[in-house]
Amino acid sequence: RTAEEAMCRTVLGVMPCATTVSADFGRSIARREAWPRVQATLALGVLTMSGTVPDDASRLAARDAASEGIHAGRVERYSDGLVAEGLLSRPGSQALVRRLIRALSHCSDGSATIDDGLVSVDCRLTPGAVARVRRILASPLPAGELTALDLTEIHADDSEETAAR
């Protein structure tokens, strides 16, 4: 839903003279329940989240998981660019968003996405974090399907080894 307001100059000053409101109900009626569409990246200690989530609860779940990473010392700060659409979320969506952000916060750097219920994670992490990320993303996910998991172990000598694909 969007609102546009036109301003007019009157003898009393500048005042609203017309308001146009438009709404697109087709998506919420046709789909009833919406999937989150989240893109998250972690680089240089900064967790950046963008995309859309169905509701404020899903957005708060992502922020809580990011804050958990900060409190644990794995993330320095986060940037919340998520937009709540005000739609009914699919069952398990909030937990899925939380788990995705939690998993990414264990990485040294990487990215993760949720798109129409399809989940992918690509990250570089220490050998000790591989088991934690696998545990967080273990099936069954609360919603959606893990379609790609690319974990690359980084070692103290700067060598890398693929842990999972």
Give the SSE string: EEHEEHEHEEHEE
Roughly what fraction of the amino acids lie in strands? 35-45%
Helix content: 25-40%
How are the strands of the biggest sheet laid out side by side? 5-4-3-6-7-8-9
Low-confidence blocks of residues: 26-30
> Which class of secondary structure composition applies to the elements?
alpha+beta
Major sheet description: 7 strands, mixed
How many helices? 4
Please tally the β strands and state the result: 9
- Give the termini distance in whole angstroms: 41 Å
Using only C-alpha atoms, the radius of gyration works out to: 20 Å
Task: Describe this protein's structure.
With 165 residues, this protein is of the alpha+beta class. It has helices spanning 26-31, 56-71, 93-105, 127-136, and strands spanning 2-10, 13-22, 37-43, 46-53, 77-84, 109-115, 118-125, 145-154, 160-164. The strands form two sheets. A seven-stranded mixed β-sheet has the order 5-4-3-6-7-8-9. Helix 2 packs parallel to helix 3 and helix 3 (93-105) packs antiparallel against helix 4 (127-136). The N and C termini lie far apart (41 Å).
Summarize the structure.
With 165 residues, the protein is of the alpha+beta class.
SSE blueprint and pairings:
Layout (H helix, E strand, L loop, with lengths): L1 E9 L2 E10 L3 H6 L5 E7 L2 E8 L2 H16 L5 E8 L8 H13 L3 E7 L2 E8 L1 H10 L8 E10 L5 E5 L1
Parallel strand pairs: 4-5, 7-8
Antiparallel strand pairs: 1-2, 3-4, 3-6, 6-7, 8-9
